[in-house]
Amino acid sequence: MLSAGFINYSKIRDSLYIKLFLIFIAYSLLTEISAFIIGVLLRINTFPIYNTWNLMNHFFYLFFFLHLLQNSLKRKILKFIIGIYAVFTAVVISFYVDFLSKFLSINSVIGSILIVISIMIYFSELLQSDEILNLKKSIYFWISLGVLLFNIGFIPVYIIAEFIVFGGVFKIITFFLNLLMISCFVTGFIVSKKEYN
């Protein structure tokens, strides 16, 4: 995924937010590597690592899609959503869930729902603009599609996983959702055109 971004770097050279996207993907990779080393090899609690990544993931994508919006009313709605989520997160961490020893599961579900809402707001704006004519040539569309598919699949699977064994099936489905999302990202880097990025 990162290699596809760097190979096609000339297409995204002028886009700060795509560069930040690549940095976020690199951070996600480092999170997985460090969590494996700390959790599996050293057998140390990884909740702080995954909770931090989880919150960074939600806020990154919410601000990413805020950046893409042109309509002032839609931007205000998304800013309101981000503010509510920030307050909700602060309350949960302060009073209900120990950030260092428990997974922020409710934040994970609500954050994913809010990301889906933000993408739908972005898509609604695309449908009303001329950009719809060149949708497949924009890396933003492919990132949006990948993130949307992942989160739409993740929400019900995660909720169901709370009531069943949280192991094998959940990991397999999450793996395939990640594969689907990464495929969208890679496709975007390959087929997008510089002038639409």
TrEMBL record:
Q: Which residues cross the membrane?
A: 20-44, 50-70, 77-97, 103-127, 139-160, 172-191
Keywords on this record? Membrane, Transmembrane, Transmembrane helix
Q: What is this protein called?
A: Uncharacterized protein
The taxonomy runs: Bacteria, Pseudomonadati, Bacteroidota, Flavobacteriia, Flavobacteriales
